Amino acid sequence: MHVLFVHQNFPAQFGHIASYLVRHHGFQCTFVSQKPDGQEGGIRRIEYKLQGGATKQTHYCSRSFENYIWHSHAVYETLKAHPEIKPDLVIGHSGFGSTLFLADLYRCPIINYFEYYYRSKGSDMDFRKEFPMAELDILRVRGRNAMLLSDLETCDAGYSPTRWQRSLFPASYRDKIDVIFDGIDTNLWRGRPREDSLREIAGVKIPDHVRVVTYVSRGFESMRGFDIFMKIAKRIYQERNDVLFVCVGSDRICYGGDAKHIQAKSFREHVLASDQYDMSRFLFTGTLPTPDLARLLNRSDLHIYLTVPFVLSWSLMDALASECTILASATPPVMEMIEHGYNGLLADFFDVDGFTKLALDVLADPQAFKHLGQNGSAMIRDRYSLDTVLPQMLALYDRVCRAGRKSD
User: How far, in Å, CA of 163 to CA of 156, rounded?
Assistant: First the structure.
């Protein structure tokens, strides 16, 4: 069986699935992305190149859709130039829109990964009232969803990683969307003895008596609550002098409109300038190699995770798998994974006092909360590990292929 994966990046959500199919089922897997041509782990990689995109003259509300179309057409033209590629199944990440025209190139079924459906109310768009979205950003939501709706209409089936993310899509299409998580590699993300954890980070040795609080985010930004985290951290170190806050990530603004509300070069600089912080208590590592991050989480006494109602971060699932004691925001995507007092602790996103109290309780006696991390790790192994979700994914592929391509 030949499966064609389409995503702007490689390996993204699909690399581990393709590797699994090649290794364990003898499938032929081709991956079309913006990465250079090559071979990796038995997967053929083909590069597509954009020939254009939205400009300043393109209406702001339709720029995302315009870019989706350029990606879709580039993928189409690239694969048309490779007639030797004859997939039995196409898998693509909707939102990048790049499978849309493949329905006119191939007669095989198409499955789309549906990660997020944008809403202007009761969502990431209006959750943080102190950082209001501009009117055009709110109106743009409908244009951003246009490609998702096209994919929902065109594909044969889809899947979302969580029940909450699936619930955001229009009710008329939900029966077409399964819930299957991407999968966590529990050989990498797992509990380890303390002596096997990361003892030195970015050249800084961590004494055994120091409590380590970790915060991980691809970008330090308001949607991931970086400003709230810093307020919590300050309250904590004012009470305890033995805590080191290790922050992993970059100064990117990956989501939202933070840049429109600040004068500083980054949201992190904006937050640090808004108050007086003892920076000797913080270690900003930048991004870390995956093995180092896994071992850092094993050294963590408390992992703090905040998010507005938005796509759930892989970092939360990695921390759960790593037996971290997690203190997180009580927002819908998080509450699907964490039950307060069973496999983590929850506080209202804006409740700095509540977060601080819970954090100080954990840091006073980390061992007393160790069962939370153990329960979290067991949950990941049982419900979200690669060993669990990859057979679910394969069953979806099999079901869709047996049904065949729907008629247009």
Answer: 20
The pLDDT score that the predictor gives to residue 406 is 63
Residue 67 located in a structural domain: yes
d(CA 156, CA 329): 36
pLDDT tens, position by position, 45-64: 999 999 999 999 999 999 99
281-328 pLDDT tens trace:
999 999 999 999 999 999 999 999 999 999 999 999 999 999 999 999
- Are 349 and 331 a contacting pair, CB within 8 Å? yes
3-state secondary structure of 126: coil
**71 and 57 co-located in one domain:** yes
For residue 408, tell me if it sits in a domain: no
The range of the structural domain enclosing residue 65 comes to 2-183+385-403
Q: Are residues 74 and 60 in the same domain?
A: yes
| Residue 8 and residue 133 share a domain | yes
CA 27 to CA 23: how far, in whole Å? Answer: 8
Q: Give the span between the Cα atoms of 42 and 11, in whole angstroms.
A: 13
Q: Would residue 395 count as lying in a domain?
A: yes
Are residues 399 and 341 part of one domain? no
Instruction: Answer whether 385's CB lies under 8 Å from 186's CB.
Output: yes
Q: What is the spatial distance between Cα 14 and Cα 163, in angstroms, rounded to a whole number?
A: 20
DSSP code string of 328-348: EE--HHHHTT--BTTTBEEE-
